[in-house]
């Protein structure tokens, strides 16, 4: 039986008794009337409390979504999407569809977040939900029982509008999505809570601002501090309602009255000041000609509005690292020559994009209703010059990406030139050649040899050419591995040079193996990085602005971390003695940066290291083992380190070597346990009487899954015995030939190891499974090595 039945019965009984008591109280001078009123209200509150407890117990997010507590997060999300489509009020005519939709959304808010779900599973109904449902139950049952409107106590309707749920932010989502994205667009975030009465008054203005700013490209977020206290502490906000702006990872608090015009101006003030330059007849030549220094295209927007539109500023902020933006006010007399030169139509906004040719725009767009998607697509398709200069590693990665497996190749045609006037004609001829060869598989770039000396030395073998050189390259691995080929004869821009380059590009597209040289490319120097002092001044300027803002509005709680950081920085920079006689130990010279790792760590497999490096190797890790002998150890290790150096940065790869003179039976035992790995006479039976030489073999061993990949060495040089060339299918020498082999001949066995490592990383090598790993001193495989004495 429902608990509320007993409270209803108790209430009616108390009212009846109190009426009798009230009648009798008339004889006592009305002394019982206060007691009568107090007991009636006490009964009412007890009734409402019982109804609220019932309501809170009825809500179960697992039951609403039809899930069990063992359901995964993927199942929760899948069921939520299905139920939302089924119970959406616009698609479902059921009278209870809206209430069910709100329950589904509320359930997903709890179960869709890992932290909230864990709190619910641990403590049951969450405190915020209890308050919200207490509020909702209070309004509903009080209204149903006594016919009072919910505004009787001036309580807002509990529960969030389902249209706001897409803007909700949690701590993980803010740090993984909003903060990185704030470097491309500003965010406007509202801080609210379930019991925020003032939030109701700003809600209409907030909705109007969202409808206006979101289509322009402003990110929107809502943080419920009742659920996300950790995120609220990170943002430094402890009052509701509050509105924040986030740009470039920096949080700014909105302190003015909540009016739509103020919110729009607040977003505009968040953006950097010099995003868009005003262009007139006097400065347009220098603006368009700055592509050579800035290494970026230029965009001009022509419009009749005196102020730069916010949509254009937001587009400029999104592409500030790629394109320069200028604005031309068509209403000024100082822009008449500019309008006439480019034949601008004054009836609609026009955007012109210029690259190396400042006399003719590379692209143009004109529309009365200029939308954000149109502008972003227009700029995104033209954010690089025809022949951009490689000024940092990030640009190199975007223009010349690493070759991916099963994807189309990308070749980088690189001109190594100089900044002197004598190189200008050749550079212009290279630009003309690139403009006429616009194939998607080719990307034309250039570098200045003086600015990128490490890269040029790696491609030109430390030679200093007297004239420009053209190199065609393809990047193979993140470690810097690349294959390349230089165009014979250099480059001076003549017709013969263009013909020769065109023929080699055609040959390359027919035969990718034309790039026959390999090199490890160093990381490019960042030519555009500002000096440390400029960075420090810019950061200090931002901090002082925030301090001034906090002082103006007396926001001491949010200002204390900034003050602490600034005083700490001043103390470190100027060495001011701290109070209380505590003096830090300062080194006389600043610590130097650690040198880059320019070697490969190779471990020998012995009785001590065998278990940890193979048998008990962590899942997902692979040990690449080189088999060698005492005679070939030095030559093979040097070649081995050179071939695998570009892969040494991978955390899951380990590099070792096995001495076949010390452990001669390990390799035969491994191959006998896996017949699929043995082929030909070189892995014949031990009873054939023919000695077997495994020098130069490389094995990629997965200790956890018990399989290996095998590299068979190839000798490409000439032997001393008769000048015979060893074929690629046979890699073993007899004992007499091995004694006569020179160190040069031995190290040629690993000439193809680099390509084999690339196939290993792509996962295309055949895998040979084994029942177990043989011990170092045993001939039969086992799951662990034999006991050592």
UniProtKB/TrEMBL annotation:
Name this polypeptide is given: DnaJ homolog subfamily C member 16
Membrane protein topology class: Single-pass type IV membrane protein
Alphabetical UniProt keywords: Autophagy, Glycoprotein, Signal
SMART domains (alphabetical): DnaJ
Biased segments, Polar residues type: 777-789
Organism: Oncorhynchus mykiss (Rainbow trout)
Region (Disordered): 719-741, 766-789
Biased composition (Low complexity): 719-734
Localization annotation: Endoplasmic reticulum membrane
PANTHER family: DNAJ HOMOLOG SUBFAMILY C MEMBER 16
């Amino acid at each position: 039986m429902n608990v509320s039945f007993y409270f209803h019965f108790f209430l009616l009984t108390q009212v009846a008794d109190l009426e009798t008591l009230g009648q009798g109280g008339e004889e006592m001078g009305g002394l019982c009337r206060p007691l009568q009123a107090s007991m009636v209200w006490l009964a009412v509150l007890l009734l409402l409390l019982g109804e609220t407890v019932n309501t809170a117990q009825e809500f179960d997010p697992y039951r609403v979504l039809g899930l069990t507590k063992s359901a995964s997060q993927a199942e929760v999300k899948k069921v939520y999407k299905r139920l939302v489509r089924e119970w959406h009020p616009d698609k479902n005519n059921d009278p209870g569809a809206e209430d069910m939709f709100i329950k589904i959304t509320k359930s997903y808010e709890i179960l869709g977040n890992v932290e909230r779900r864990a709190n619910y599973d641990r403590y049951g109904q969450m405190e915020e939900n209890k308050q919200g449902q207490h509020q909702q139950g209070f309004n509903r049952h009080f209204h149903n029982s006594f016919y009072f409107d919910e505004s009787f106590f001036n309580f807002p309707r509990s529960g969030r509008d389902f249209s706001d749920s897409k803007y909700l932010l949690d701590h993980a989502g803010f740090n993984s999505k909003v903060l990185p994205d704030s470097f491309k667009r500003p965010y406007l975030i509202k801080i609210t809570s379930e019991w925020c009465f003032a939030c109701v008054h700003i809600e209409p203005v907030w909705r109007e601002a969202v409808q206006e700013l979101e289509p322009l490209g402003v990110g929107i977020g809502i943080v419920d501090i009742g659920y996300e206290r950790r995120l609220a502490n990170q943002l430094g906000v402890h009052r509701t309602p509050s509105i924040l702006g986030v740009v470039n990872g920096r949080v700014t608090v909105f302190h003015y009255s909540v009016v739509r015009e103020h919110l729009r101006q607040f977003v505009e003030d968040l953006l950097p000041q010099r995003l868009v330059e005003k262009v007139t007849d006097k400065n347009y030549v220098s603006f368009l000609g700055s592509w050579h220094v800035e290494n970026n295209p230029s965009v001009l927007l022509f419009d009749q509005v005196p102020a730069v539109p916010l949509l254009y500023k937001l587009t400029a902020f999104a592409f500030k690292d790629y394109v320069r933006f200028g604005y031309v006010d068509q209403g000024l007399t100082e822009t008449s020559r500019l309008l006439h030169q480019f034949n601008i139509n004054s009836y609609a906004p026009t955007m012109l994009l210029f690259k190396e040719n400042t006399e003719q725009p590379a692209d143009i767009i004109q529309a009365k209703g200029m939308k954000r998607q149109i502008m972003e697509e227009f700029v995104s398709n033209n954010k690089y010059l025809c022949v951009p200069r490689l000024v940092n590693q990030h640009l190199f990665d975007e223009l010349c990406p690493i070759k991916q497996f099963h994807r189309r190749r990308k070749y980088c045609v690189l001109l190594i030139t100089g900044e002197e006037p004598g190189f200008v004609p050749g550079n212009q001829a290279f630009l003309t050649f690139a403009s006429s060869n616009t194939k998607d598989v080719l990307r034309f770039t250039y570098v200045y040899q003086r600015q990128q000396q490490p890269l040029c030395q790696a491609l030109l073998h430390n030679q200093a050419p007297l004239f420009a050189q053209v190199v065609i390259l393809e990047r193979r691995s993140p470690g810097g591995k690349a294959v390349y080929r230089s165009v014979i004869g250099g480059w001076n821009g003549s017709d013969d040079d263009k013909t020769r380059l065109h023929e080699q590009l055609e040959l390359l597209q027919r035969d990718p193996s034309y790039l026959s040289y390999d090199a490890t490319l160093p990381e490019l120097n960042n030519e555009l990085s500002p000096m440390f002092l400029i960075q420090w001044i810019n950061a200090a300027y931002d901090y002082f602005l925030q301090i001034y803002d906090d002082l103006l509005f007396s926001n001491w709680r949010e200002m204390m971390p900034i003050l602490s950081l600034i005083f700490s920085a001043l103390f470190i920079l100027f060495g001011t003695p701290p109070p209380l006689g505590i003096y830090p130990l300062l080194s006389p010279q600043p610590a130097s940066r650690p040198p880059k790792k320019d070697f490969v760590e190779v471990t020998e497999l012995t009785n001590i290291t065998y278990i940890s490096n193979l048998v008990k190797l962590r899942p997902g890790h692979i040990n690449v083992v080189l088999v060698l002998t005492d005679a070939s150890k030095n030559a093979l290790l040097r070649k081995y380190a050179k071939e695998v150096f570009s892969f040494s940065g991978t955390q899951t790869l380990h590099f070792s070597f096995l001495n076949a003179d010390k452990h001669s039976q390990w390799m035969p035992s491994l191959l006998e346990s896996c017949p699929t790995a043995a082929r030909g006479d070189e892995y014949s039976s031990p009873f054939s009487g023919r000695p077997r030489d495994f020098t130069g073999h490389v094995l990629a061993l997965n200790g956890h899954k018990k399989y290996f990949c095998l590299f068979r060495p190839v000798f490409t040089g000439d032997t001393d015995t008769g000048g015979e060339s060893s074929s690629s299918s046979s890699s073993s020498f007899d004992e007499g030939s091995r004694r006569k082999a020179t160190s040069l001949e031995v190290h040629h066995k690993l000439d193809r190891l680099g390509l084999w490592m690339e196939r290993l990383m792509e996962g295309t090598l055949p895998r040979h499974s084994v029942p177990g790993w043989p011990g170092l001193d045993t001939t039969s495989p086992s799951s662990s090595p034999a006991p050592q004495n």
